[in-house]
Amino acid sequence: MWGLVFVLYALGKFPKLFSRENHHMRGLSILQMCLAMNMYGYLPTEIIRSVFNLKFMDQLDEEIENCYSKATYPLRVRHMLMELNRAVCLDHPEENIPWFHEKYCEDFLETVPVPTSVFHSEVHQALAQLVGGPEVVRANVHTPYYYLLDFEFVLDGSSNPVPVKEYAPSTPRNSKSQKKIAVENKHGHRRVAVILRRENHYCTNSRQLLGRHQVECRHLELMGYTVVEVPHFIWYSMAHATQEDKMQYLKDQIFPAR
After folding, report:
1. Strand pairing of 225-231 and 190-197?
2. Who has the most CB within 10 Å: 106, 150, 208, 214?
3. Which of 162, 111, 106 lies closest to 137, judged by CA?
């Protein structure tokens, strides 16, 4: 399907095909197509408005009500709709589509286990030695629009860590809407998002990052983050390296100019 979407995107023919054939497509397929088109930077206003309206929402509700796979299909549809809602809010703010998945995301976070892997623990330990402890580095936090970060910290204009108590959280609790795209960064400050790239973030037998994770990086940068990715295959290749070597690797990623 991705290849077909790319060909249609390259030819500039998808909107007409979509408007002519979308009544034959399942709601989930339409959401998937829209996410694919958005990844390629081609999601026209016409299609955005055909999805974010009451008629299409009613179609999704009807599909969920009448589907056979009650255990999985509704969850897939709801999560895909959330991802598209987030993508449109971030990539197409001019469309003024409201963010209406706050409650869904809060509930979803309740089901996400806290990472306990050796990978996570080792990077956390190295970051604590390099940047600072819990007074500086926050672990397992979420951003506006509910991307999950393994670690987050802020550096001032001199690349010194800023204590957590001195900067605003990336997402205020009890916020009912996310109107602001950007996180709050003081002039010269960098809010760093450290993301551990696990095996399931990549294509099978490949080091090609999956599309949704490529989009995640783009969205984090749009929100004002400096993104630092730590691929599992690089970290595991340092299994026999010293702690100083691991810290040096992270230092090179976080402070590339030093």
Report:
1. parallel
2. 150
3. 162
pTM of the model: 0.86
The 3-state DSSP class for residue 225 equals strand
The pLDDT value given to residue 67 = 83
Which pair of structure tokens corresponds to residue 184? 């709050």
| Beta bridge partners of residue 192, listed in sequence order | 153, 226
CA dist 143 and 5 (Å) reads 30
CA-based nearest residue to 139, from 42, 202, 185, 128 = 128
* Residue recorded with tokens 């992270």: 250
Q: Which CA distances in Å does 233 have to 169, 196, 223, 226?
A: 31, 11, 28, 22
Q: Which two tokens stand for residue 177?
A: 């809407």
- Cα-Cα end-to-end distance for the chain: 44
Spatial CA neighbour of 16 closest among 8, 7, 24: 8
- What HEC string does 79-111 produce? HHHHHHHHHHHHHCHHHCCCCCCHHHHHHHHCC
DSSP-assigned letter for residue 227: E
174-222 tens-digit pLDDT: 444 445 566 778 888 999 999 999 999 998 888 989 989 999 999 999 9
Average pLDDT for the chain:
86
Boundaries of every domain in the chain: 2-98, 118-254
